[in-house]
Design brief:
The complex is a heterodimer of chains A (112) and B (370).
Chain A: E1 2-8, E2 11-20, H1 22-36, E3 43-46, E4 50-53, H2 59-69, E5 75-78, H3 82-91, E6 99-100, H4 103-111
Parallel strand pairs in A: 2-3, 2-4, 3-5, 5-6
Antiparallel strand pairs in A: 1-2
Helix pairs in contact in A: 1-2
Chain B: H1 2-20, E1 22-29, E2 35-40, E3 45-48, E4 55-56, E5 67-72, E6 75-80, E7 87-89, E8 92-93, E9 98-100, E10 105-108, E11 111-119, H2 120-143, E12 153-160, E13 168-174, E14 179-187, H3 192-206, H4 218-228, E15 239-247, E16 252-258, E17 263-266, E18 274-276, E19 294-297, E20 303-307, H5 324-327, H6 341-352, E21 362-369
Parallel strand pairs in B: 3-4
Antiparallel strand pairs in B: 1-2, 1-11, 3-5, 5-6, 6-9, 7-8, 7-10, 10-11, 12-21, 13-14, 14-15, 15-16, 16-19, 17-18, 17-20, 20-21
The chains are: A alpha/beta (112), B alpha+beta (370).
């Protein structure tokens, strides 16, 4: 499991690569929320290289989105592969962390 | 006074140094998900099936004295003791003595032992954590309902907590003479905290004790739980859930799911299944959320399969990740002689999964309606 952080026009971009399984969630959860929540900056999350998302990995998205929303910022995911999109759809947390298709859509959503 | 202070500091440092010392461990995750840890000291250890072996493994494929693990420098070296079935390091059979790197898996018979190099502090802490998790697991299991082997509604289940205890809980039982309820919850995260959260919810449901809530209305039940268990007041924990109420008079099942995959209704002849799911978000994540429910007719003799995602979120022996669709054919297979349906499914999933236990709790409930 790998995480990369960059910035696009004042919006933070986090890319997740590999498997976010029960083991990976333990390792990445702290890094993920630590990289995003304290800054209070709207963030887009690139899921295109995320090959697997276990339900245990979902919590970090929800906690971080809630922490951002308290500061008026947003968390938006994009580019999920079908298996990952299916988990997100089943768990129904799209109203907390929206999932869109492309980076451009994600940027538009955090700007809106 | 100064002398006393100096002495205290010296003692504390000595204790810290001991706790910082590293020890070689051979660790086994057994079928119950609990880690058994064997420390390998300077004298080394013989692994075998019976005494006088130092590490005794009750496996008929393990020889009485199978292999020796010895400390050499900072590492471990393993040598086979002419065992019948051989000794393997990361899948390769030993032909002579071989280095056992940290993280490598030593296999003897059907038992796999992972080499870890831990500080004494880690060993003490994880032993304590294991004991706490075992106690939490025992508490959850004590609250699970007994199987129903007779009567118009029969229930069977299999619950196998993972090494880290995943926060699953389930229950079923009569609500009135004609209504029968069943539910399964899966709290986010794992550990004793998730288990205790699931126990709190389970106790409310067991006692039908949700305030101002019609327990026969699944949408109301989910909404009520959502109001009571908002995650900011509960250590950032939310849960997924499936809840259903069966009316024996009309054979109608009212149900609602929240963030949870479907339960599946299988007719007595088998061969097909009907997914039962409603589109609702997670319980505890969004205040004031409205939940929706649905209904299904239950044919005579049909079975309802209700399970947590730990049942199908596995990595197989060949490294493939299973999803729900990989698991579903198993619910259509007949039970193997001598095993219940739940046991048969558990056996099949265990066979498909890579060794090392499950990442998440395995909770499977099967209800059959005459």
């Amino acid at each position: 499991m790998e995480m990369r952080v960059s910035e696009i026009d004042g919006v933070k971009k986090v890319s997740l690569l590999g498997r976010l399984d029960a083991l990976g969630a333990d390792v990445v959860e702290t890094q993920f929320s630590g990289a995003i929540a304290p800054s209070g900056v709207s963030t887009i999350v690139d899921l295109s290289e995320l090959t697997f998302l276990a339900s245990l990995g979902v919590r970090m998205f929800i906690s971080t989105a809630r922490a951002l929303s308290w500061r008026g910022a947003k968390l938006v995911m994009y580019g999920a592969r079908p298996a990952v999109a299916e988990i997100i759809e089943t768990m129904g947390f799209g109203d907390i962390v929206p999932l869109v298709g492309s980076e451009a859509e994600a940027l538009a959503l955090v700007a809106g | 006074m100064d002398e006393d202070q100096t002495r205290i500091v010296t003692q504390a440092r000595g204790r810290d140094e001991r706790l910082d010392e590293r020890v070689h461990c051979l660790e086994l995750v057994d079928g119950h998900g609990l880690v058994r840890r064997h420390l390998v000291g300077s004298a080394g250890a013989v692994v075998g099936r019976a005494a006088p072996a130092d590490i005794i493994l009750a496996d008929t494929e393990v020889s009485r004295a199978h292999c020796r693990v010895a400390l050499e420098g900072e590492g471990l070296v393993v040598s086979d003791l002419n065992s019948t079935n051989g000794t393997f390091v990361d899948g390769t059979r030993l032909t002579g003595a071989a280095f056992l790197p940290v993280g490598a898996v030593l296999r003897v018979g059907r038992v796999s032992l992972k080499h870890e190099w831990r500080t004494c502090l880690e060993v003490v802490q994880t032993d304590q954590l294991d004991r706490d998790l075992t106690r939490a697991s025992a508490y959850v299991q004590a609250l699970l309902p007994p199987p129903l082997v007779q009567g118009p509604i029969r229930a069977d289940w299999l619950y196998q907590p993972s090494a880290k205890l995943g926060g699953d809980a389930f229950g079923y039982g009569p609500l009135t003479d004609d209504l029968f309820l069943a539910y399964l919850i899966d709290v986010s995260g794992h550990g004793a905290g998730a288990a205790m959260h699931s126990v709190t919810v389970m106790n409310l449901l067991r006692q039908h004790a949700l305030p101002s809530t019609d327990m026969a209305d699944p949408a109301q039940v989910l909404a009520s739980l959502n109001a009571m268990f908002q995650m900011e007041q509960h250590a950032e924990m939310y849960f997924t859930m499936w809840y259903g109420v069966y009316d024996r008079r009309s054979r109608r099942l009212s149900y609602a799911s929240a963030g949870h995959h479907p339960a599946f209704l299988v007719p007595p002849a088998g061969g097909e299944f009907t997914p039962l799911r409603t589109r609702n978000g997670l319980v505890g994540a969004v205040p004031g959320k409205v939940f929706v429910a649905d209904t299904a007719q239950v044919p005579a003799g049909a079975s309802l399969f209700l399970f947590s995602d730990g049942v199908f979120e596995i990595v197989t022996n060949d490294g493939q990740e299973w999803g729900l669709n990989d698991f579903l054919p198993l619910i259509l297979k007949p039970a193997v002689d001598g095993l219940t349906t739940c046991q048969t499914i558990f056996r099949d999933v265990t066979k498909a999964a890579r060794p090392g236990g499950f990442d998440d709790d395995f909770s499977l409930v099967v209800l059959t309606f005459d």
